[in-house]
Amino acid sequence: MILTDRDITDALAAGTLCIDPPPPADFYAPNGVDLRLDSRLTLYREPAPDEDPVIDPAGPGYTFREAITGMADDIEIGEEGFVLDPGRLVLGWTLERVDFGAGARLAARVEGKSSLARIGLIVHLTAPTIHAGSTGRIQLEIINLGPRPIRLRAGMKVCQLILEQTLGIPQRRYGGQFAGQRAAG
């Protein structure tokens, strides 16, 4: 069952959901809440001439964190914003930290905003699930599939959180490779 704006504000008031900083009233849609882009981005580098450009996620010893560290750098979005060229992928973070309290019976999906998708900005297209018991900022995969460069600004509304009630309480909190993920920096 998808939560309405009223259900979301009730969950925040009851403490079963925490969004920090709290969203202002105009961030709510009938069944979701907008989240903003943090000031930090992770940018991919071109491979060095002597570097194997192939990523092998099923290969022995592969870890996501080591792969990203080996091929990307973190930057701060300045006052002028960051121009994302067509075809380029960057990793971003939500400004807001989201916490589903233990026993909250909540999970969520992160969805891009249609107003951004219509100009070619795809935000968190795959793996939208935020598991029950998750806590932290949400890492976003952001790609420009449009015909023109798009300026990203820290603090812009970039995605929406669609909250869902689970049928039960999980035996354990989310503990996968992205558990407790933090913004770079």
UniProtKB/TrEMBL annotation:
CDD domains in alphabetical order: trimeric_dUTPase (cd07557)
Enzyme class: hydrolase
UniProt entry keywords in alphabetical sequence: Hydrolase, Nucleotide metabolism
Record GO terms (molecular function): dCTP deaminase activity
EC number: 3.5.4.13
Top-level division of the source organism's lineage: Bacteria
Xref: PANTHER family: DCTP DEAMINASE
Annotated protein name in UniProt: dCTP deaminase
